[in-house]
């Protein structure tokens, strides 16, 4: 997978925060060498957060998030600020802009970023026109204990320093380097059992399948892909059992019943539990399934937004399995995309999908939110394995 077509969810998310007209958009244009963001002398030109995928050497694929000014005003301004706050949840590295000596807002936002353990790079832009750059710098140092980088996006000065700080700020756990390396070695045979149902667009594979195939090829494994109805024939055709079988969670039990004893079994969703989130937290969260009753409420959170499909995993299969376990009176609420309630107190359990469309930082922010509210959370693969009684038999 090349840098130009790396999925947005796998890119380092670099968000720019600051007051209106502090030079956020002009820095993106300067550091990428392209006119990506709209620049204007009129405050408030950037409204909703703008996401732009780029390659930033030597980091690689990144996603810049150009946000609205956090000093926006009026009813619409409040809505834009709220969207800027939501962008924090997806931020891996933050660049905070300082444009004056009054720093109450900057301190508020910087404190929030630090609270979430997001690296902060302080910047003073427009050094070519600001007359009090040194005063601003001293105030930032004295008030926040930060050493801001003074730049001029217009004159292209100080940009190398920003790039250097971005490189240093990349979190060590930004992305797990491999999805499957903990389960396989070079030369191992891996069998992928992939039901091609209506959830997979005709002629294409879904993103987790593509990424896992590429990961296995990078590890120099031998990969064999089949649909569920060809499992018996494939196993008979093999001279030796596969080291690992990866399947879709919805056919976990069917594949488990037929797999060779020596073959490990997991699912695409279970693998993404660690690649995109925290598998230990999910396994602990799945324990809540045993305590569900008809009076309980469960939230199912899908990353993708799509029209309901026949036998949809999140909208049909999971609710059915949960009600078979807890009773028909169980309340199941469903949200999709970036919709995720701030208040989770009504729920006994949150189950989110594999989250292949979200970056890891955002998924972890959801886990942190659930944990802070003492609400259990897991994902589709872990939940289905638990509901079908084979979680302890799944390779993690």
UniProtKB/TrEMBL annotation:
Keywords: GTP-binding, Nucleotide-binding. InterPro entries: FeFe-hyd_GTPase_HydF, GTP-bd, HydF_dimer, HydF_tetramer, P-loop_NTPase, Small_GTP-bd. It comes from the Bacteria. GO terms for molecular function: GTP binding. Residues 282-394 form the Hydrogen maturase F tetramerization domain. GO terms for biological process: tRNA methylation; tRNA wobble uridine modification. GO terms for cellular component: cytoplasm. Residues 13-126 form the G domain. Residues 181-277 form the Hydrogen maturase F dimerization domain. SUPFAM superfamilies: P-loop containing nucleoside triphosphate hydrolases. PANTHER family: TRANSLATION INITIATION FACTOR IF-2 (PTHR42714:SF6), TRNA MODIFICATION GTPASE GTPBP3 (PTHR42714). NCBIfam families: GTP_HydF, small_GTP. This is Small GTP-binding protein. It comes from Ruminiclostridium papyrosolvens DSM 2782.
């Amino acid at each position: 997978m090349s840098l130009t077509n790396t999925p947005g969810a796998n890119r380092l998310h670099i968000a720019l925060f600051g007051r209106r007209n502090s030079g956020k958009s002009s820095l993106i244009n300067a550091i990428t060498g392209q006119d990506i963001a709209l620049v204007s002398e009129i405050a408030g030109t950037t409204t909703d957060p703008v996401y732009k995928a780029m390659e930033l050497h030597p980091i690689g694929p990144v996603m810049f998030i150009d946000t609205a000014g956090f000093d926006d005003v009026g009813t619409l301004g409040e809505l834009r600020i709220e969207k800027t706050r939501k962008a924090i949840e997806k931020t891996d590295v933050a660049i905070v802009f300082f444009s004056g000596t009054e720093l109450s807002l900057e301190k508020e936002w910087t404190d929030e970023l630090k609270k979430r353990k997001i690296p902060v790079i302080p910047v003073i832009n427009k050094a070519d026109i600001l007359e009090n750059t040194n005063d601003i710098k001293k105030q930032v140092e004295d008030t926040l204990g930060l050493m801001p980088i003074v730049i001029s996006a217009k004159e292209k000065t100080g940009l190398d320093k920003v790039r250097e700080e971005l490189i240093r700020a990349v979190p060590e756990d930004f992305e797990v380097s491999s999805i499957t390396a903990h389960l396989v070695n070079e030369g191992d045979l891996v069998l992928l059992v992939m039901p091609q149902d209506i959830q997979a667009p005709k002629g294409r594979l879904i993103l987790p399948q593509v990424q896992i195939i590429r990961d296995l090829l990078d590890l120099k494994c031998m990969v064999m892909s089949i649909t569920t109805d060809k499992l018996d024939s494939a196993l008979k055709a093999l001279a030796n059992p596969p080291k690992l079988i990866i399947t879709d969670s919805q056919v976990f039990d069917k594949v488990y019943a037929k797999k060779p004893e020596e073959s490990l079994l997991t699912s695409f969703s279970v693998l993404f539990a660690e690649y995109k989130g925290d598998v230990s937290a999910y396994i602990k969260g799945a324990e809540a399934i045993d305590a569900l009753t008809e009076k309980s409420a469960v939230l199912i959170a899908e990353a993708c937004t799509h029209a309901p499909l026949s036998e949809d995993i999140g909208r049909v299969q999971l609710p059915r399995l949960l009600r078979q376990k807890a009773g028909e009176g169980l309340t199941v609420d469903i949200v999709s995309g970036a919709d995720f309630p701030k208040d989770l107190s009504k729920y006994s359990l949150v189950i989110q999908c594999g989250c292949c469309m979200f970056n890891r930082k955002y998924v972890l922010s959801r886990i942190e939110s659930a944990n802070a509210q003492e609400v259990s959370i897991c994902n589709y693969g872990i939940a289905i394995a638990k509901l079908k009684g084979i979680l302890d038999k799944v390779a993690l």
